[in-house]
Amino acid sequence: MAEDIKTKLENYRTAPFDARFPNQNQTRNCWSNYLDYHRCQKALEAKGEDTLPCQWYKRVYTSLCPISWVQKWDDQRAEGTFPGKI
Amino acid sequence: MAHHSHPYHMVDPSPWPLTGAIAALLMTSGLAVWFHFHSTSLMLLGTILLTLTVIQWWRDIVREGTFQGHHTPPVQKGLRYGMILFITSEVLFFLGFFWAFYHSSLAPTPELGGNWPPAGITPLDPFEVPLLNTAVLLASGVTVTWAHHAIMEGKRKQAIHALALTILLGAYFTFLQAMEYNEAPFTIADGVYGCTFFVATGFHGLHVLIGSTFLAICLARQISHHFTSEHHFGFEAAAWYWHFVDVVWLFLYISIYWWGS
């Protein structure tokens, strides 16, 4: 499984088509992957496991999200005012 | 009374449409003045003029119908159509606020945390006071129907009791809602949740007050022997309006209070 993820990450060019978000408005796609990355980090760190699989989500949201959004959400998480559930 | 060979009502000249229009102008421009210059005088003047207009206009209609006999069956039919069209327009009015609510709640934005209710909002428990309010309004729908049947059967005392009970239930709803408003953990300024909640339920409350007033006028008229068992359209119009208010509440309860929590 880790080998698959490694090859997946090595072959990454940009975010692939995600059938959960088929339309032009990709806000939810960006938001979902941002949340999934941080939830993945939190869950795997709690178990003491390697967080490499989480890198996929990070790659996707970095490809999709406006940089200002990511900065704003990172600031909110630091302040404790992030509205999403992580 | 003029003699004519048709059953329609050629209304006498009246100043109330003009005073009503002036009142509407003063109220709306008064609202703008309040927003920009912090003075409520113009708006207050408009409201007073509106109150005087509606009292005298509807008083004249009661005079024309009950005392002068102008409300023949065709005239009454026209009044029925009018009330139905008005209530339909009110349905569309509320539809807009439901649209706004569903637009925001079906696809909650990241600013809300992607959830509904939004992050930080504690909604009211739908099974506490809101459920009681639902029961109160449903009961008032039963009592107003009781009153109608009593009027149609010529049972004067019963009609008075049933109508009074309806108004009391309406007042109880208003009291309960006022308490809820006072104690709610969120305000109208709390994002799109607070906004959709208080604008939709607020306009509903205004319609409860209007409907209660209409029913109270009917109670006064019933006591004064205005209604006959065959001809009591004023009461029917009030009852239709009251049922409309009840139905709007049911939609509010299911959408905003229950699904929205």
From TrEMBL, chain A:
<feature type="disulfide bond">
    <location>
        <begin position="40"/>
        <end position="54"/>
    </location>
</feature>
<dbReference type="InterPro" id="IPR036549">
    <property type="entry name" value="CX6/COA6-like_sf"/>
</dbReference>
<feature type="disulfide bond">
    <location>
        <begin position="30"/>
        <end position="65"/>
    </location>
</feature>
<dbReference type="GO" id="GO:0045277">
    <property type="term" value="C:respiratory chain complex IV"/>
</dbReference>
<dbReference type="InterPro" id="IPR003213">
    <property type="entry name" value="Cyt_c_oxidase_su6B"/>
</dbReference>
<keyword id="KW-1015">Disulfide bond</keyword>
<dbReference type="Pfam" id="PF02297">
    <property type="entry name" value="COX6B"/>
</dbReference>
<comment type="function">
    <text>Component of the cytochrome c oxidase, the last enzyme in the mitochondrial electron transport chain which drives oxidative phosphorylation.</text>
</comment>
<dbReference type="InterPro" id="IPR048280">
    <property type="entry name" value="COX6B-like"/>
</dbReference>
<protein>
    <recommendedName>
        <fullName>Cytochrome c oxidase subunit</fullName>
    </recommendedName>
</protein>
<dbReference type="GO" id="GO:0005739">
    <property type="term" value="C:mitochondrion"/>
</dbReference>
<keyword id="KW-0496">Mitochondrion</keyword>
<comment type="similarity">
    <text>Belongs to the cytochrome c oxidase subunit 6B.</text>
</comment>
UniProtKB/TrEMBL annotation, chain B:
<feature type="domain" description="Heme-copper oxidase subunit III family profile">
    <location>
        <begin position="4"/>
        <end position="261"/>
    </location>
</feature>
<feature type="transmembrane region" description="Helical">
    <location>
        <begin position="240"/>
        <end position="260"/>
    </location>
</feature>
<keyword id="KW-1278">Translocase</keyword>
<keyword id="KW-0472">Membrane</keyword>
<comment type="similarity">
    <text>Belongs to the cytochrome c oxidase subunit 3 family.</text>
</comment>
<feature type="transmembrane region" description="Helical">
    <location>
        <begin position="79"/>
        <end position="102"/>
    </location>
</feature>
<keyword id="KW-0812">Transmembrane</keyword>
<feature type="transmembrane region" description="Helical">
    <location>
        <begin position="16"/>
        <end position="35"/>
    </location>
</feature>
<dbReference type="InterPro" id="IPR000298">
    <property type="entry name" value="Cyt_c_oxidase-like_su3"/>
</dbReference>
<feature type="transmembrane region" description="Helical">
    <location>
        <begin position="159"/>
        <end position="179"/>
    </location>
</feature>
<keyword id="KW-1133">Transmembrane helix</keyword>
<comment type="function">
    <text>Component of the cytochrome c oxidase, the last enzyme in the mitochondrial electron transport chain which drives oxidative phosphorylation. The respiratory chain contains 3 multisubunit complexes succinate dehydrogenase (complex II, CII), ubiquinol-cytochrome c oxidoreductase (cytochrome b-c1 complex, complex III, CIII) and cytochrome c oxidase (complex IV, CIV), that cooperate to transfer electrons derived from NADH and succinate to molecular oxygen, creating an electrochemical gradient over the inner membrane that drives transmembrane transport and the ATP synthase.</text>
</comment>
<feature type="transmembrane region" description="Helical">
    <location>
        <begin position="41"/>
        <end position="58"/>
    </location>
</feature>
<comment type="subunit">
    <text>Component of the cytochrome c oxidase (complex IV, CIV), a multisubunit enzyme composed of 14 subunits. The complex is composed of a catalytic core of 3 subunits MT-CO1, MT-CO2 and MT-CO3, encoded in the mitochondrial DNA, and 11 supernumerary subunits COX4I, COX5A, COX5B, COX6A, COX6B, COX6C, COX7A, COX7B, COX7C, COX8 and NDUFA4, which are encoded in the nuclear genome.</text>
</comment>
<feature type="transmembrane region" description="Helical">
    <location>
        <begin position="191"/>
        <end position="219"/>
    </location>
</feature>
<dbReference type="Pfam" id="PF00510">
    <property type="entry name" value="COX3"/>
</dbReference>
<dbReference type="InterPro" id="IPR035973">
    <property type="entry name" value="Cyt_c_oxidase_su3-like_sf"/>
</dbReference>
<protein>
    <recommendedName>
        <fullName>Cytochrome c oxidase subunit 3</fullName>
    </recommendedName>
</protein>
<dbReference type="GO" id="GO:0004129">
    <property type="term" value="F:cytochrome-c oxidase activity"/>
</dbReference>
<keyword id="KW-0496">Mitochondrion</keyword>
<dbReference type="InterPro" id="IPR013833">
    <property type="entry name" value="Cyt_c_oxidase_su3_a-hlx"/>
</dbReference>
<keyword id="KW-0999">Mitochondrion inner membrane</keyword>
